[in-house]
Amino acid sequence: MKGSDQIAGLPHQAARIQASLHQAARIQALLRLLLAGFLVAVLVTQPPSDHLVLCWVIVLCYVIWTAATTVILRIGGPGMLPYTWVALAVDVITLTGLTLVADTSADTTWTAYTLLNGLFVVPLLAATQLSPLVCALATAPAVAAYLVSGLLIRPIDEEPISYVVLRSLLLALVGLACVLLSALQRSRVLTIARLLQERNHLLEEMVQIEQREQRNLAETLHDGALQYVLAARQDVEPAAAGDAECLERVEFALAETTRLLRATMSQLHPAALESAGLLPVLKDVADATRSRGRFSIDVVTHDWDESTRTAADELLLVTVRELLTNVVKHASARKVVVQLGRTDAVATLRVIDDGRGLGGVDLEARLRNGHLGLASRRIRVEAAGGWMRLRDAEPHGTVAEVEVPLV
Questions:
Q1: What is the pTM of this model?
Q2: Structural domain boundaries, residue 358
């Protein structure tokens, strides 16, 4: 597959990638038109003394071919981009054939000498193909034709062989530079394409994470505050009638509803983390999760108090929320322990549950299958210079360990 075909075949192609390919094709078409004009000018100003008609036939056919390929490329659109390398073969064949035909009259005219210079345009044309291999394959016969033609006409003006070889080496160097330029341009286009794909993937991931966070919020409100509100509603009328026991239940339900709503607000509002610190917000998260999961949660700290503020607070908070959400959904646990601590310039987090365990969970496979929760949190932790791993607890359950640098 050619370079243009590889680039044009990339999935989720963006408009700017197509624009780059079209721009390269337009430059190639412009250079080819200029080359056709150069050939016409040579025959007009420096006509060969032999085979002039044949030379004009070759040049006119090339002019027609150049005009046709320009129109076809414009009409055909992206579908024609993979086939533009065919025109390079026609360029090399035309220039080589025309030079060899003009060589027969090199002793009386300058046609062959002038046409030799036209071979320098071939590497430039090939460089716009965005394929180093195609550029090299187009440059090699151009250098060979330049060398052979130079050797054929050398005896006429007694030019030293070393001059012919040096000029051929110069063309080879130009061709090598064009090959490297083609590789550089192709690498840039492919890099842009890959970055755009990653950007699209991240946007899709952000949408999915937002949807998942909304579902988690809905579940939190439904399983927590809403249940207490519904329970209080049932006891309102008896409490209004003077039933002291029902009144106590209503007061308890309203108090729990207030606590859960405040906990939810502290999780949602970043100002709560900035003003209160990680530890109080973490305790609110634990309280809210305790109601949803119907298990006990203990928060244990080491060298971490309510006045502690670190650069990793937000990352630790979203990570522990994700870990606790997975415990609620998948672990069937009865007890969970959240351990938060600091050692030197590193923050450590451990979430331990006594549930059913990992069961061979593969984070990479879950990420490939669209399960972005734990996998995406692990990627964020690693991007911050830390690490995250899961292992089975003894005798059963799961231990999630996170370590994040604080600087």
A1: 0.50
A2: 295-407
